[in-house]
Write a structure and sequence with these properties.
- The structure is a single chain.
- The chain is α/β, with parallel strands linked by helices.
- The protein has one domain: 3-Layer(aba) Sandwich (Rossmann fold).
- It is 39% helix and 23% strand.
- It has 10 helices and 12 strands.
- The strands form 3 sheets. It has a 7-stranded mixed sheet with strand order 6-5-2-7-8-12-11, sandwiched between helices.
- Helix 3 links the parallel strand 5 and strand 6.
- Helix 1 runs antiparallel to helix 10.
- The longest helix has 21 residues.
- It starts with 7 loop residues before the first strand and ends in a 6-residue tail after the last helix.
Length: 279
Amino acid sequence: MTQKLRFDEINYWSELKHEILNDYAAAYSKIFASNKQARFEHVYIDAFAGGGIHLSKSSGDFVPGSPLNALQVEPAFKEFYFIDMDGKKLAQLRQIVGDRPDVHFYEGDSNEILIKKVFPDVQYDQYRRALCLLDPYGLSLDWKVIERAGHLGTIDLFLNFPIMDMNRNAIWRNPEKVDPQDVARMTAFWGDESWRQIAYRQIDTLFGKEDEKAPNEVIAEAFRERLQKVAKFPVVPEPLAMKNSKGADVYYLFFASQKKTAETIAKAIFKKYRGKGFV
């Protein structure tokens, strides 16, 4: 039975993110479709795929989601892996895409599905490479996924670093009042409790030393270093800070790869979008 389509509303910064991903995916696919890379197969992975179509808050227009955009890239990816915890959204995406042998749908926890079912299909010695989007719903992503992606040596990664969610739920000016469950989510995303030393720093006051919350850019830079040193992504350019209409950071869009060529392409795309709108 065909279900009625539902459309999540997205903000301007999400529309920009889709444009950025489209630009990189096209360049990425073109490289792997060239004669020089003929022995490689390249695939696309979307770990929080959603329902496929969104509604723009700014214009009211329909906006295709990242899975549909990836399916339109030419030269085409060899295969596509779409994952979502929400069964209704995934069913809608399947309804829009149709039955295709090159598209794989997975309902459930992306953290487990990526590790157990998807990443094993992009091993280095299989001559398979992947462009992977990790755009989690808040702090629902585990560091083990990011680290595994880096250690594989086969993945170019776009990652939503949800700084606004972190500030609202985990990195409070008074850390003692934070819900332990939110602390646990933050630790799972970061990979260990070293985020505490990054997020807070001691300052001298008239009343002695006190903890002060670190600026967003300090936290983001520490995570960038973690992507390089712990996850073993050799190249991680400065991320894009996606801001709302009031100038507040909503999230940082990170890119990570194994190749300098990929970094050059990503930097050029990021440069094009820095200063555009609220970025």
